UniProtKB/TrEMBL annotation, chains A, B:
The keyword Methyltransferase applies. The lineage of its organism: Bacteria, Pseudomonadati, Bacteroidota, Flavobacteriia, Flavobacteriales. This is RNA methyltransferase. PANTHER family: RRNA METHYLTRANSFERASE 3 (PTHR43191), RRNA METHYLTRANSFERASE 3, MITOCHONDRIAL (PTHR43191:SF2). GO terms for molecular function: RNA binding; RNA methyltransferase activity. One of its GO terms (cellular component) is cytoplasm.
Length: 242, 242
């Protein structure tokens, strides 16, 4: 039986403040929860309206009614499974080959989409500035489509990291060099900036190179969305064999 | 003075049903409204809490209070300007050079992001299947960041169009040929499918080629988001000079 106070507690984890306080986050939906159950994460509670939807090797769950799920859920249309997981201990950034760094990305959908991109393009780790949106935000988790289980996310001071790193950093910038004309080094850090303001001055000053995606035709479009720009840059990185 | 019935009418345009019925749509925010006022569109009403925010050449507006704007708006945090525009007469699809076609894209954020991508990469027209989300949906408009003013959108039967067209169609498909190894023809139609189901069987049967973006490393990621996949494919198209 799931009591009122437990429902209220789970609902509170929609907010970053309570996720931090308790070291827990909530994941919803059959696909996302099953991906996380197969990853190296500790489930603290798994709730479902239909146990057949969970991966067969997982047997420790509570069956709940649709109306209890509705009360626990942060979604308008809850999707049969909800689980509470422990937030992994925060890890040290370990730079190998290519790493993606995010400098103040604020939109949960963008961060989630970028995590999914890194999973696709084989980038094992994302380093986020402290002011980047929390990767355990429910909207981020939804947008990752489960890729959060396979990409390591580290929050730290980007400026400190870049200063101490022997890897050179390339940053996306509207006035940078044409990415199609460049060869990527065999290792490095690719930095993407905030949706409205781009890369901060502090981090910008530490870049070895600024790169851009050429615009075509007479458009007056000001920029690409940060997730789509990341898609193009990671595709270029992988196409060229780095 | 903006009366209660007018507020109610404007609010009703959040729904596709009332947009279709009245041939009108609502745009919100300083940037988006100013971009649309400069485009070839007919404004039926422009409301602002601060007239200095509108482009100077535009002088026919009503000044309203924050609380009236709040009542008219579909946004949680309304952004100072709201305008009602006439939906342009639906145009014939005219195929030149490269055209993007969307087969059942449902998510407003994805469609808006794809419109912004086409603006950036110089694709003047998007052809949408009838079941693709309405491009005058407020969430689509927000995600376009004003690019809706510069990209022509046509809704039609994709199957009929492809059958009648002399341009060959390439479609994004998980099992398609590696896009990095291919040369694009000088003209064509690039088809992107639905978020969950990809390209429909009917449209798939009319494709000249299926293309894919190679996955890197050991990930079990199932797919890329349709907007980020479109970003990579349009980048490849332009990089190769088509």
């Amino acid at each position: 039986m799931v009591g009122k106070s437990q429902i209220k507690f789970i609902k509170s984890l929609q907010l970053k403040k309570y996720r931090k306080l308790n070291g827990l986050f909530v994941a919803e939906g059959v696909k996302l929860v099953n991906e996380l159950l197969q990853a190296d994460l500790t489930p603290e509670g798994v709730y479902t309206t239909d146990p057949k939807l969970l991966i067969p090797q997982f047997s420790s769950f509570e069956v709940i009614s649709e109306s209890v799920l509705q009360k626990m859920s942060g979604l308008k249309t809850p999707n049969k499974v909800l689980a509470v997981f422990r937030i992994p201990e925060s890890k040290q950034a370990v730079l190998e080959e290519w790493t993606l760094a995010l400098d103040g990305v604020k939109d949960p959908g963008n961060l989630g989409t970028i995590i999914r991109l890194c999973d696709w393009f084989g980038i094992p780790q994302i380093i986020c500035s402290e002011d980047t949106v929390d990767c355990y935000n429910p909207k981020v988790l939804q947008a990752t489509m489960g890729s959060i289980a396979r990409v390591k996310i580290v929050y730290t001071s980007l400026a400190t990291l870049l200063k101490d790193s022997e890897h050179s950093a390339w940053g996306a910038d509207m006035h940078g060099e044409n990415i199609y004309d460049l060869r990527f080094p065999t290792s490095g850090i690719l930095v993407m900036g905030n949706e409205a303001h781009g890369i901060s001055d502090e981090v910008g000053a530490l870049l070895a190179k600024k790169v851009s995606i050429p615009q075509v035709g007479p458009s007056t479009a000001e920029s690409l969305n940060v997730a789509t720009a990341t898609a193009v840059l990671l595709s270029e990185l992988r196409r060229k064999g780095s």
